[in-house]
Amino acid sequence: MGQIFGRRSRDRKLLEKTNGPAFSYYFDALNPEFRKWWVASAVEGVQISGADGIFIDRMNVDDNAGYPKEDLAEISKAKGEMMAALKEQMGPDKILVGNNAADTKDVFPYCDAFMFEHYNATVTNKENLLKEWDDMIRIAKAGKISIYRFGAKGKGQNDITIGATKTDGIEKKSKDQLEYYHACFLIGAQPYSYFQWNWGWNLEDGNLVDYPALQKPLGSPKGAYKREKPDGWIFTREFEHASVWVNTETKKAKITWH
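Above: the chain sequence. Below: its structure as tokens.
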């Protein structure tokens, strides 16, 4: 379900979406022939590569997804059918990871894991973080996996992926910024939760950098997170080997290791 840039295909109907001055194109999940072709191609790719599973992008179907609003319900249902067929044909020993899929009800039953991709300022705001912590609880109760992905950003950069690699001193910035985002993860972390920290998707974009804080023994949580005030944005949580404090309004945090 990745994003495609270029001309319209003569064989596949694509949905057109304005993206600034340019146009970006997306596969049409409402086309049953496309769905059949897509599932077969994805399964073949997993088999040829010997992969443990597959990562599916653009699994959110909401007002921010860029699809025509009048088609959202149908698109959600169509994507659900695609993921059901994909999961069945891949087999039970393969993992299906849905990106930003936690709130797509038609897709949720067929995903084994859900990535929370915090790619810009909107999805890292305080209201969205609070919602995601509840999503992580719901995902854990369903016996599924959460992958909480954050990325470091350079000066004046809202998007935490695009162009980050070319930012001077980005490795130091990533180490300086880690504590806040690490704390945001720990506040909501549940069984089967994983934290991903880098500044881009390529191997050289921080994915091989050593972050000592991520190697420290955390231990089990002593309970759920606590909100300092019912309408406030300061949260705390205790673990066996760490105390976590975070203010998602000021974007400040402190992890005290015991």
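Residues 1-22 have pLDDT under 50 and may be disordered.
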